[in-house]
Amino acid sequence: MPNTTRALSAAQIEQFVTDGFVRIDDAFPAGLAGECRRILWADTGCDPDDPATWTKPVIRLGEYAQPPFAAAASTPVLHAAFDQLVGAGRWSPRGGLGTFPIRFPSPDDPGDAGWHIDVSFGWEEHPTDFLSWRANVVSTGRALLMLFIFSEVGEDDAPTRIRAGSHLDIARQLAPAGEAGLSLRELAADNFAGSAHRPETLAIGTPGTVYLCHPFLVHAAQPHRGTRPRFMAQPPLLPREPLRLERSDGSYSPVELAIRLALGR
Fold first, then answer.
1. Does the first or last residue of the chain, that is N or C, have fewer Cβ atoms within 10 Å of its Cβ?
2. Contact 217, 192 (CB under 8 A)
3. What one-character-per-residue DSSP string does 170-222 give?
4. Chain-centre distance of CA 209, in angstroms?
5. DSSP-assigned states of every residue in 40-55
6. How far apart are CA 197 and CA 193, in angstroms?
7. Other beta carbons less than 10 A from residue 154's beta carbon
8. CA angle, corner 124, sides to 121 and 129, nearest 5?
């Protein structure tokens, strides 16, 4: 039976096409976020009540597919939004969530705060050299970048920085490279100067907030200047079928429309 729920308004979809992201509040229950944090805290080896144990600026934890994580990734609101942004039947459900870079209050440089996009293929050939991983203009291997917030994230709590509209710059940069695309090393050669003119916004929110982002959106981490650790996941939404920039029936998804807009189609 088709999903008849609508998570996003027409204005939000237009914002996604032009700015490259949309924020959904209460995309999953705050109670689920709390269950997930308890599991994650245990795996950090840190004491949530003793800041003296928070000795690193960032701890990266791997894929989590326990029931609360799977539930957070699979709410009706999110599935409806995926249908609206990617197209019904064109994405693969997630059984869990991706890597958790847990950021702690620290004066130290986290070492991973540069501007980038999340590249999506080529890792099979170069599993340890992430700068060789690639992206192309049809975003092979990725339908969306997603930011799942599991703790209170204000301006001082290391919110992800987003360059609004930068997905259009990246689409134009990738187009001449065709199916082979460009590596992250090539894309980052000028430190993403092509999107430096874009306004910067912050991915802030309460537990249960999700940002759904175009796969070409330029974003960056930053140091944590707050008082409580930030818990966030950044999984991809995987495509069930390749993006297409030419459709005879005109049934373009907003992800595809944004790329077509960038290319003047």
1. N
2. no
3. HHHHHGGGGGG-EEHHHHTTTTTGGGTTSPEEE--B-TT-EEEE-TT--EE--
4. 12
5. HHHHHT--TT-GGG--
6. 8
7. 14
8. 85
Q: Quick one: angle between helices 76-86 and 254-262, nearest 10?
A: 40
Mean pLDDT, 10 residues at a time, the chain of 265 residues: 72 98 98 98 97 97 94 97 98 92 94 94 84 96 98 98 98 97 96 97 98 98 97 96 95 98 96
Helix and strand totals (H; E) in the chain: 7, 12
Residue 102 pairs in a beta bridge with 59
Contacts of 30 (CB under 8 A, 6+ apart): 206, 207, 208
- Pair 60, 101: CB distance under 8 Å: yes
Q: Phi, psi at residue 20, to the nearest 5°? A: 95, 5
Residue 264's φ and ψ, nearest 5 degrees, are: 75, 30
Look-up of token digits 């019904």: 88
Give me the pLDDT at residue 125, please: 82
Contacts of 35 (CB under 8 A, 6+ apart): 68
Q: Are strands 144-149 and 210-213 parallel, antiparallel or unpaired?
A: antiparallel
Q: What is the pTM of this model?
A: 0.95
Would you state the pLDDT for residue 151? 98
Dihedral angle of Cα 129, 132, 138, 139, to the nearest 10 degrees: 20
Tokens standing for residue 163: 């360059």
Q: Are 260 and 251 a contacting pair, CB within 8 Å? A: no
- State the residue for tokens 């729920």: 5
> Which alpha helices (DSSP H) does 52-179 contain, by range?
67-72, 76-86, 166-174
DSSP state of 124: T
